[in-house]
Structures are given as structure tokens and as C-alpha cells.
Amino acid sequence: MTQHPVRTARRAQTTLAPTRGRLQVLVGGRARRPRRVAMLSVHTSPLHQPGTGDAGGMNVYIVELAKRLADLDIEVEVFTRATSSDLPPTVELAPGVLVRHVTAGPYEGLIKEDLPAQLCAFTHGVLRTEAGHRPGHYDLVHSHYWLSGQVGWLAAERWGVPLVHTMHTMGKVKNAALAEGDTPEPAARLIGESQVVEAADRLIANTADEAGELAQHYGARPDQLAVVHPGVNLEVFRPGDRAAARSALGLPQDAVVLLFAGRIQPLKAPDVLLRAVSVLLDRRPELRDRLVVPVVGGPSGTGLAEPKSLQKLAAQLGICDVVRFHPPVGQPELAQWYRAATALVMPSYSESFGLVALEAQACGTPVVAAAVGGLPVAVRDGETGTLVPGHDPQDWARALEPYALQPELVARQGEAAARHAARFGWGAAAGGTAEVYAGALVRPDAWLGGGTRRRRA
Ligand code: UDP
Asked: What is the distance between the alpha carbons of residues 421 and 71, in angstroms, rounded to a whole number?
């Protein structure tokens, strides 16, 4: 994991030193500690099952990051919108990590696109919670995705603390790489994102490329930008016995398993995998009896409009005998799918990072991925998998063929993949994030924005 804020001038004044198990920020000789962070995740809860609807990599990111920050003695309270009347006001996710359910609008029936109208109610809930504590309860706000950024903007200003924001995805980047016929992100989102970028003290990008996109598309300043690679839970996702995984999942031992895992939506391009499989079978009909293409996940985003479109495509292509659809599963079972797979296939049009790529590699499985977003960081082309430029099914079939025919390639790249992924633990991601927090907490006069921020007495 690298953590290299583009900003260096202010960082130079910051030193991190572990003292009595706590993270110390030494500022000109004075110690300053991030003690408690208000983490905002308006539109999706860290308690939701990822892999369908609005729950995906960001949920995993928040859960893992929060736990590892708590290990560094930084308490985290995650605010999320209550989506059921059964939910308790608070849930302890792990020691030092509390999830707070905020009532903002009706529990059910709202889609993500409705949520801008509930941001005022959500902000009200966040501010009321803080008002029930002594002043200074939260040292810092860390918002995730632009909707939360809007709330964080107000909360940080009201409390006089820094705002750290992680975009996860950016409307302008998505719109620049849309799948054919997919719906672009609306202007309201693009405007909202620009406002958050302007308000944030620090912007955490998954990769240097993402930091570049923040600067190019949203005018982020170098002194705001920091790069922290996300991680992978190396306890859950670790190499294992492929034969045992296949038995557990009912897959034949001699199968060629080309796995898709994640949310089913045009942006992730599972259709490209299906079309490539059809081309591959035309070229290599002898593979037909052995080829299995599991699609693990549920519909999401614009994919919800036609949740059965992928099944229909499989029927049109005449490959229903090969493709198997499975609802989303918990991470231990997903690890079994990765171990069972010959390769994980990610033909996405856009990915801010692509956690499934790291997870599969951590299980010793090579990844065939589109050369977009964070995937060129997650996958080492020719070493731990293959990066494919573009989305032409012919190119994808050519890229997949060696994995179907050369078990020694799968074994060699699988071993390299596990070694590569082992470098991306969440502990390192949390350490990098804590360093960004520390940088944001240094010299409050600087982040007070020339006195525009109100600090409470
Ligand atoms: N995931 C899961 N169960 C599933 C499919 C996916 O738990 O059946 C998780 C997976 O482990 C990964 C996340 O969903 O951590 C997807 O993250 P990624 O960054 O790949 O995609 P995103 O959803 O953020 O677009």
C-alpha cells in the first residue's frame, strides 16, 4: 500500500508516532490525536450484504477500514440512513465501531436517486446526535460518496472539524465511459460532487489515476489530494484447495470456471463476458462440456430496470447450459467461488478500484480485467492476470482462451496473484488513512479556511 499525498508541504510538519498503542500526531512538539471520527454513509449501510443493489465495494471498504482504524485506537461512528423500522438506533459492528441509524424519509421505497431530497433530514439527524454529546465529540468527518459529502460539508463546518472525503465513484468519470445505451449520471450529481470537492480538506483517492481525475474533472487542488489504496481481508481471502472448493460448490473437478462476481449492471459489463464465451465456444467447441460461467451477484443501478436481461442474453447466445446465476453470497462463500475459479473476469467499463480483483488474487486466482480505473493497479498484466484494452468480445475471447487451455499458466499466475494481493492488507490502508486524518488535523488555522469555519467554544 502506498500513501502519498500529493500535498507534501503540510505533511512535512506531521510526524506519526505510535505511543501506548495510540496514534500520536506531533505538531510542532504538541501531540494531537484523532480520537473519534464521524463516518458518513448515507445511501448504503455497512450492515448490508454487498453484491447487489446499492451495496458493493464501498460497504466492504467502510467495514474493513473502520475496524482497522479502531485497532489504531481511532473510534468510528458510521451514520447511515435507516431503511427499516426494525433497526435499532445503534449497532456495535466491532469494538470501537458503532453504526448509527438515522431516520431520513420513509424506511422503504426510496431509491438512491431519491436521496438528495432527504439530505436535509439526514443532516438534521447527524447534528442532533452530536448535540447530545459534549462539544468536540467528533474530531473529524469522513464522508463516502457525494451524497454523504453534502452532509459532511455541513457537519464539519458546524463542528469546526476537518472534512475528509472519499468519492468511490465519480459521475463525470462514469459518463465518459458509459456502456452502450446506459443512462448517464445526472447534472445534479455532477454539481453536488464539485461542491464536495471544494468543501473537503482532504480527498482520498484509491489510485494516483483517480487523484488525477479529481484534479482534471473537478478542479481538486494538489494540497487536498491523498492516495490510499484499499485493501483485502487476507484472513477471509486466502489461497485454498481448489478441488475442495469445487466439491463444496458442486462444480466438476475438470471444469474451466470463468467467474463473474459483483453487482450486475451495464457498467460492470457481464454481457461482454457472455459474448466472449460465445465466441470462445465457436472457436473451441471441445470446451463446451467443461466450461462453466458462474455469475455471482444481484442486479444494481441501471441494471435494475431489466434484471433479467443477462439471462435473456445467455438464451439469445445459446449458452444457457454454460452460464449459472447465483444470488450474492457472504464473503467466506465468495472466497470459495474464487478458489474454485480458473479465472475471475472483470470486463467493467469503469472501476474506481475493483475490490473483487484483489480478493480473487488473494485466493490464488488470476484475473482477466479491463484496463480501466484501478484495475491496472490491482492486476499485474501478464503476471497475475491479463489486462484487456476495450470491450470487443473477440479480444476478450482471445484473452480468456489461454486460461481455458493452459493449467500451468493458471497455476503460475495464481501463485503470483496471491503474493501480489498479500501486499494490500486493510491494516496498511487504515494506517494510510490515519495519516491523512492526522494531516487534516494539523494546523487548524489552515483548514479553517481563513476563518470561514465556525468553531464552537
Ligand atoms: N461481494 C459479496 N458477495 C457477492 C458479490 C460481491 O460480498 O456475492 C462483495 C465483494 O467481496 C467485494 C464487493 O462486493 O468486496 C464488490 O466490490 P467492488 O469494488 O468489486 O465493486 P463495487 O460494488 O464497488 O462496484
From this structure: 21
Contact 130, 138 (CB under 8 A): yes
Point out which residues pair with 166 in neighbouring strands: 144, 204
Amino acid letter, residue 145: Y
Ligand 1 proximity of 152 Cβ (cutoff 6 Å):
no
Question: Which atom in ligand 1 lies closest to the alpha carbon of residue 56?
Answer: 23
Whether residue 367 contacts residue 373, with contact meaning beta carbons closer than 8 Å, is answered with: no
Q: What percent of the chain has pLDDT over 70?
A: 89
Distance CA 16, CA 125 (A): 34
Residue 70's H or E segment, with its range, is helix 57-71
225 C-beta closer than 6 A to ligand 1: no
Strands 90-94 and 367-370: unpaired
Beta-bridge partners for 90: 100
Instruction: Specify whether the CB–CB gap between 261 and 51 falls below 8 A.
Output: yes
**Separation between Cα atoms, residue 59 and residue 99, nearest integer Å:** 12
Q: What is the pTM of this model?
A: 0.91
Tens digit of each residue's pLDDT (9 = 90 or more) over 372-412: 999 999 999 999 999 999 999 999 999 999 999 999 999 99
Residue 56 beta carbon below 6 angstroms from any ligand 1 atom: yes
| Cα 335 from Cα 52, distance rounded (Å) | 17
Question: Looking at ligand 1, which residue's alpha carbon is closest to its atom 13?
Answer: 57
Confirm or reject: Cβ of 60 under 6 Å from ligand 1: yes
Grouping H, G, I as helix, E, B as strand and the rest as coil, residue 128 is helix
pLDDT digit string, tens, across residues 350-372: 998 999 999 999 999 999 999 99
Span between the terminal Cα atoms of the chain, in Å: 39
Between 187-199 and 145-159, two packed helices, what is the crossing angle to 10 degrees? 40
Residue 363 CA to ligand 1 center (angstroms) comes to: 15
